[in-house]
Structure formats: C-alpha cells, structure tokens
Amino acid sequence: MSITYPPDRVLTTMSEAIARYVPHGASVAMSLALEPLIPFAAGHEIIRQQKCNLTLIGPISDVLFDQLVGAGCVAKITAAWVGNVSEGLGHCYRRATEQSVPRAIVTEEHSNFTIALALLAAGLGSPYIPTRTALGSDIVHQNPTFRQEQSLLDGTPLLHVPALRPDVAIIHVQRSDEDGNAHLWGNLGICEEAALAAKDVILVAEEIVSREVILSDPNRVLAPSFKVRAVVHEPLGAHPSPVQGYYDRDHRYYHEYHQRTRALAGFQQWLDEWVLQVPTRAAYVAKLGEERIRNLGVKGHRYAAPVDYGY
Amino acid sequence: MAGDPTINRGPTDYSPQELMVVCAARQIHDGEKVFVGMRLPLLAFALAKRTHAPNCIGLFEAGILRDIPAPRLLYTMGDVANITGSLWATRMVNLMGLMAAGEVQVGFIGGAEIDRYGNLNTSIIGDWKHPKVRLPGSGGAADIASLSQRLAIIMQHDRHRLRERVDYVTSPGYGYPDEHGPAGKAWRQRVGLPRGGPAALITTLAVFTFDRENGEAMLQSYHPGTTIEQVQEQTGWKLRVAPDYAETVPPSAEELRVIRECDPEGVWTR
What we know:
heterodimer, A: alpha/beta, Glutaconate Coenzyme A-transferase, 2 domains, nine-stranded mixed sheet, globular, B: Glutaconate Coenzyme A-transferase, ten-stranded mixed sheet
C-alpha cells in the first residue's frame, strides 16, 4: 500500500461525496451530536441518489433517520432512539417497523451509552467494552451483538458491547479547512467516537477557512484529518437542527413534519416538496426564504476569550 | 405548539403538566447532581434551580453540564441556549461515565408504559417481532434507569400505560420476582445493576414511591381533584397505598410563577 502525502484534495461537492463514499449497503453513522449539527443536507442527497440497503448508526436521530427510512433507503437501524425529539413518534419509522412500508427494516437496539461505547471501542481498537448499563433490560436480549458475561475480576454480571465500525461517518461541523482539519464546538455527543471509529469520514462545513485558522486552536479540532475523505462546504446544511454560532433550531419545521407525515401520502408529498424537487442545498435555502433564515440567525454573538498557545 | 396565553392563569388554575413539573422538581435536593431527560424534566431542573435547590447541577446526555438554568425555554437539551453559560460542553461518554461511576444522585425520564415494579417501556408495544406500536426506543433512558442513584419517572396516567407487566423492558426498574428471589433491589443486584432504582413515579393523577425490598409501587399522594378510587380505576394493578399517603401538595404561587416565566407560551405545560 502506498502512502501519499500531501493527501488528495478532499474538498468536493455533496453529490460527489455521497456518490463516492456512501455506496448501497453502507453502514452510515450520522446525527452524532444528538439534537444539533444533524447533517440533513447529506441525508437528503442520499435520498436523491436513491441509496438503498443502508444501515444507519447513531444515538438519537431526531427526524433525519425517519426521513431516510420513509424514503426506502434503509435496511437496518443501529441506534438508541428514532423519532421526533420535540414532537414524539417518527411516523415513517412506525410504518416501516409495523407494516413494512415502504420496506421492512431491522432495528438493533442500543441505549445512548451502549452505542457510544460500541463506537469508542472501535476507535480504541478494542474488541468490546464491558459495562453495567442496561443490564436487566430487554435491549440486551434483543441486540444479537451483545454478550452477557461474568467479570473475570469479581464474577459480577457484565454487558460486553462489541466494537462497531461504520463504513462512513457524516459529521456536520462549524468550520473546516480544505484538507478536513475541522473545528466543532458546543456539545459533542459521540462525534469524536464516530469519527475515530469509522473507516471514512465526510465532513459538512458551514464555512471553509484557512489551515492557519484551524491550527490556531488545535484543542478544538474534532479528529485527525487523515481520516477525512471528503469536505463539503454547505451553509445551512444542518437545517432544521441548530449549529452553535450560526443558526437556531427551526422548531416549526419539526412540528410541520410531524403533522404532514402522519399518513403515507402526506410523507410522500413532503418528500417530494422538500427533497426530491430540491436539487441542491442552495435551492433548499432559497426555498426556505430570507425571512425564515434571518429569524433563525444569531441574535447575540458570544465569542470565547482567546487562548494563548505561545511559548 | 404554543398553548393558551398564560396571563390570566391563577395559582389554583394549574395544568396537570405544571403539577408534574412541580412534583419532579421537589425530587431534587439542593446540591445534587441531576441527569436531566427530555421535555418536562428540562423544566423541572430549571424550577428546582430557581426555588429550593439553587446549588444543583444538571447533566444533559448530549454533552452539557450546567449550574444555572438555560436563558430561555428548551425544546431539546441540544438547543443552542443550553450551551450558553454551561460549565462544560463535552462528549456524551464523559457524562454517562460520571453517572456510571455513581456521581449522579437523581435521574429523570419519561415513559410510555410502566408496570408495578417500575420497569419502563419506550420501545415496543405488542410482540417484539411484530410490534403493534413501534415507540422511539431508549435514548439515554435505559442508562439513566441503570446508573443513577435514584430514578424519577414522569408520565401520563391511564390504565393502558400503568400495566401489571410491560411488553418490553427498555429501562430496568425493580425487575420481577423469579426463582432466584424477589423483585426490588435484590433483583437489581442479581442482574448486575450497580445501584439505584425508581424512587418516584409522577403521573397526571398521583405520585408513587417504591418499596425497594419487593420493588412494588406505592401510592404516595393523589393530586388535588382526584381520589384514590379514580387513581385505582386508571391503574392496571391493585394499588398498594403508602402508610403515610396524602393529597399531593399543590404548586405554590412561587412555583407556578417560575414555571410560567420559563415556559410563557405553555409549550410543555399546557
């Protein structure tokens, strides 16, 4: 195997990144910061490219997983929670699980902690991580990858959570350079664990900045750029989820989505209107309209005090 | 989403959600570390902070630690306002890890179904292989139920939700009696859980506490305007009543004022 340096340019378009790094049948980790920084733009491109038989990996997904399930892209979910955080159940997830519409899916149940430990284990190169969480729950019986064992140290019961290595992690960040050196701030969820666990990483960035900007604050860097295969510049690419320092959560979107997708026909109309007939994120942003975007914008900046890396 | 205007609401005209938030906040003792779940617990933490527990600290599984309430109403724990003024914005494993290590005194979760032993279901109603209703799943609930020192549960009270036995145990309570021993803290020890178990079940009609020796829920208080008979009617097991049961102490004017200040449009409380 040859090692090339400097790396190939990774800055690319969303359509190219998804076409190249999310093949049919891939396992895809996304929505890793929980409610914020959800890569909706990437998810919608996956739907437009009609990717199928995907395994989705995440902690809680808010409505992005519901949309991918409804669009028929998903064969399996490996997650702790699928629904609509501020509204309740995910209608597409229900239809797929209860009625196999548009297709049957399998769910490998996790808790938030176990999915985090599974990715952490992969990132550490460890075959599994033992824990006491979820013992006594049916999650440990239903997830076929879990093992209950006795501790070699004191004989007490343990849950062994095996390493989980996604084919690709798609992570939304505030800013990245063209090589995938990126800053993410706010709550981190399991972004770092997923980036270190996945074979490939796609970054979606609100802003592309110079290498000097990123290297000025290396403590804020998410993960090593040598794992990053693609960087996509996609302003508002996480809408309707929030991005700290850029835009707020669009609560109204989640409410409307919940109402409109109760019935299958309603979901299909919604999908057509907001995904299939919207070829790019730029077109999506135009469809949202200036006023809605302005209302979500930052009302008061709160800059961190600079730190001194000098010597 | 927005409810009725709150301007004319008085101290005796509170909603069931407001009463549940008050009961939940009262579970928090000053100085405790609190694992804060989705929805009503977000408000309960803010209420406790602003009233009787000013020194409590909130842990939010998305990766946030706070010792002051967020500056505005939270729809989700990952809202941008929950980062503002936080003590720590970090990885989920750090906060779950603190709880696994025993640092969290009380954790809050909601549920779709619960049984008399405090086992909660938020995953599947009906058969696992052919679910009648697919619910969202655990999220962090199973972890909070497993690892916190005390668990407080908030949910809608009706007969099909408070059942003799749940279809699926998402979040372990006190388990079930089996050939190895009783339900309760002994069951938790048998299955390997390190501590904890339900301390309070707060519903739209009543508050239950739990007998940790056999794991059974006990009616501790019934809300003003209801009776024990009505609670029994809406509960799928034969009620056991705590010896010191009473009517739930209604919200104080101050508690309602703070809740309505936090949630002026009644997003979570109307």
